[in-house]
Amino acid sequence: MSLLQELGAQLRATSDELPTGLVTAAMERLRNATEILNWVREQSVDDLGVPMLGNATEHAERAAAALRATQDAIEAYLAAIGLAGTPGAAPGQEWRAALREDDRPTAEAPGPAEKPEALGPWWQQRVAQLTGEPAPEKQQPPEQTGTPELLRRVAAGVRAGDRARLGRELHAVTASTGLGLSAVTAPVLHRLAGDLLGHEPRPEDVPRLRSAAESRVRALLPGTPPAVLETLIGRICRAPVKEQPRGGTAADPATDPAGSGHPAGSPHPADNAVTASVLTGVLLARLGRDAAALNPDAPEPVRRPTEADEDRR
Known about the structure:
single chain; 313 residues; mainly alpha; 2 domains; disordered C terminus
């Protein structure tokens, strides 16, 4: 191996080891925590730490952007010195790291850790509103299912077009397991969208992704506010997302069309998690892949020709 090749191998190894997926998952956890606190503080005069979480989220977003810029710069440098084809990890592997980090059960035997759930079955109530599928009359103890396994089950239900099955899978877990979907789906959605588009998602791709997913997501989640899917697609494409106006009350159907039971300006913390998991299943189906493709140890999927590929021929 020449000195130049050795340098290229070291640079590519450094790029592959950057924790882009973990930082992205951490950023989504912070966003989710902010949404939960925003939801809770509607009934409180205390800020409940929301400004501090907002600052932490901003730092995480900057870190993720810096990591992506570093990887792009390394790829550009390798191309400039004629090593663009140097073997290395396949690009876009952040989703594997995010799924591995969370691939563990989070529901334990009833104890102190379950006290937040004693406030009421708010997760199951919101799942029922989003899916239109009521929770089982006889509630079983939550399954000891990790968030990645839940995502694979949801994706399987989406591919089958089975809303009842989707509801059962989401009802069967604790809120902490369900809310974790927000974190693990972020890098997965970015990768799937890139595979569907044939290139890194860009702001101008928002209409195309919306067209590809909107009708299926609405069919499976009839109670989801439209702004939730729009926000998710905007994040995938790294497009500016308009802030949702605050205000309104749940008693007013005009401000609470989905019957959410909370003000329209305060998104329910379950909305992004559930919608992101269903959107993952929809994009998998559009790519002709099944839920097994979400296993972090699965081989790289065969890339299907995209419309852009057909246009170039």
